[in-house]
Amino acid sequence: MFSPGHAGAGAYARVGNETGVMNASPHRLIAMLFEGARKAIGQARFHMQQGNVGRRGEAIGKAISIIESGLQASLDRNVGGEIAERLDALYSYMTRRLLQANIKSDESMLIEVDRLLATIEEAWTAIGPEVARMAAQGSAETMR
């Protein structure tokens, strides 16, 4: 089905992803989760448009897994307080909408969740420079 060149490219991509994860800051890891969830939703939309129910379900399942086991699980309710609680509720809503999208084959629900993720991702990206500055400041104080 695939040529040996494709297998090599796949292996290279896996090594690149693993290296990226291993070298990523905590802030970057969350950004990667947003990217992965949105990519899975994009794949689900494609498969929905193609009428490929099995692949659509797999992609939606992947998006749900990233949201629940990645984004939602990483929330620190003790530090994040009300914001973490609201994000927790929003992530739960997103997973319900993704399940409904799969059951009803409703692309508008996929678009809705993608837009919600995009909004949070944009805010997360915007705080990146401040997070990096604080991390650098913390490292400098630790070295003293």
Main attributes?
144 residues, mainly alpha, Four Helix Bundle (Hemerythrin (Met), subunit A), Flagellar secretion chaperone FliS
Distance between the termini: 58 Å
Count of discrete alpha- or pi-helical segments spanning 4 or more residues:
6
Structural class comes to mainly alpha
Quaternary = single chain
Give the CATH H-level superfamily. Answer: Flagellar protein FliS
Count of distinct structural domains: 1
Word description of this protein:
- This protein is mainly alpha-helical and 144 residues long.
- The protein has one domain (26-130): Four Helix Bundle (Hemerythrin (Met), subunit A) (Up-down Bundle).
- It has six helices and no strands.
- The protein has helices at residues 4-23, 26-50, 53-72, 77-104, 107-126, 128-143.
- Helix 2 runs antiparallel to helix 5.
- The protein is elongated.
